[in-house]
Structure formats: C-alpha cells, structure tokens
Design brief:
The complex is a heterodimer of chains A (112) and B (112). Chain A has no helices and eleven strands. Chain A is an all-beta fold and 112 residues long. In chain A, strands 2, 4, 5, 6, 9, 10 and 11 form a seven-stranded mixed sheet that branches. Chain A has a four-stranded antiparallel sheet with strand order 1-3-8-7, with no helix packed on it. In chain A, a hairpin with a 3-residue loop joins strand 4 and strand 5. Chain A is globular. In chain B, the strands form two sheets. In chain B, strands 2, 4, 5, 9, 10 and 11 form a six-stranded mixed sheet that branches. A five-stranded antiparallel sheet of chain B has the order 1-3-8-7-6, with no helix packed on it. The relative contact order of chain B is 0.35. Classes of the chains: A mainly beta (112), B mainly beta (112). Chain A binds chain B through residues 31, 35, 40-43, 45, 48, 50, 56, 90, 94, 97-106, and chain B through 31-32, 34, 42-46, 49, 51, 88, 90, 92, 97-100, 102-105.
C-alpha cells in the first residue's frame, strides 16, 4: 500500500551512541520532513528536504544529520545521542509547499 | 508572541454538541492552513485544509478562515466520544521555503 513508513517504531539506546531513524514514502512526494514532538512544545521541525540531495535545517537541527539520496528515503541520524533527544519522532511528506503533510506512525526514542 | 497559538484545553463538550476549536497566527502573509487530529500515542492525521477566507465544510467538520483577523477555527458538529483527541492547527508561513508551523494543540474531550 502507498504511504509513509517509519522504522523502528520503538528504540532504546544509550547516550553517546549513534542511531538512525528510517523514513520511506511511496507517494513520490518531493518534500519530506522530520519533526520531534515533546510535551509542551508540540511538533518542532528538525530538518526538511525539498528534493533528492536538497536538505535544509528546521527549528531544532543541532545534534541531527539527514541525507536524501533517493526521493523515497529520508533517514535521520543522531550522531551522538543525548538524553535531551528522547522524544517521539515523526516523518512527514507532501507533494508541494502548499499541500498538507502526511505523517508516518512515528518512532518513540528513549536515550538512557 | 507564538507564531501559532491554540488554547491547550482540555475543552469538554457533551456528546451531540458543537465543539469549537480556535487558532491564531502571527504571519499575515500565511496562505495555507490545516487542521490535524492526533489521538494519544498516534500520529497526526489531516482533517481539513483551507486556503481562502470563509467556511469550508466536510461532513461534520467546518473550517473557518479569517485572514484579516488572523484566525482559523474548526467546528465539529454532533460531537462524538470518538472525536476526543488533540487537534493541531498548522499554518504554512510565508517565506523562502515551506515552513509549516504547528500549534501545540487543543485537547478535546467529548463526554458521553
């Protein structure tokens, strides 16, 4: 089925470890996004991508790295995880700037 | 001033009543407005998009946009317990890239 999938759904890791969250969409949407959602802050944009090989920072990019070599994939890497990065991470995609974004099911990440 | 503001609630309404959810935004140049519903532990799900002043109806949902006053609202008629969720307002701000800013959400409780 077409859609947007995130993996893993749940992840527990330790501070200092590298962790990569995966995002895959089958709609061929140009735009893809990574958000984190924390109580009291709502959804905050980490990084976004307008097309393959085009990425840019959002509101809270520090400590995160993204890449987009293929239109359908947009992995998010925490290079050296910190406890403050414990959060729920959502990937989203959209067809164009004025169209709504569609979200994956999220990854719940806990950093001990 | 927050870019997108919502009353966090909870907003409690009896079953069958009209629930009214409000959202104000700071960027007068904003062009696209979205309402998402998010059940606890789930990802945001698009309910409505609205782009021009006035009302837009879809089933029991009506989105209202007033750009002069910089607010957008969502009305839910004949509220059902299954409507109990957090409702996120999202605004596509003007600027050089797609910047959709989310409000922190209003929690709606529909009392049977």
């Amino acid at each position: 089925d077409a859609g947007i999938t995130q993996s893993p759904r749940y992840k527990i890791t330790e501070t200092g470890r590298q962790v990569t969250l995966m995002c895959h969409q089958t709609w061929s949407h140009s735009y893809m996004f990574w958000y984190r959602q924390d109580l009291g802050h709502g959804l905050r944009l980490i990084y976004y991508s307008a097309a393959a090989d085009i990425t840019d920072k959002g509101e809270v990019p520090d400590g995160y790295v993204v890449s987009r070599s293929k239109t359908e994939n947009f992995p998010l890497t925490l290079e050296s995880a910190t406890r403050s990065q414990t959060s729920v991470y959502f990937c989203a995609s959209s067809d164009s700037p004025n169209q709504p974004q569609h979200f994956g099911d999220g990854t719940r990440l806990s950093i001990l | 001033q927050k870019e997108v503001e919502q009353n966090s609630g909870p907003l409690s309404v009896p079953e069958g009543a009209i629930a009214s959810l409000n959202c104000t935004y700071s960027d007068r140049g904003s062009q696209s407005f979205f309402w998402y519903r998010q059940y606890s532990g789930k990802s945001p799900e698009l309910i409505m998009s609205i782009y021009s002043n006035g009302d837009k109806e879809d089933g029991r949902f009506t989105a209202q946009l007033n750009k002069a006053s910089q607010y957008v609202s969502l009305l839910i008629r004949d509220s059902q317990p299954s409507d109990s969720a957090t409702y996120l307002c999202a605004v596509n701000m003007s600027g050089g890239y797609q910047k959709v800013t989310f409000g922190t959400g209003t929690k709606l409780q529909v009392i049977p």
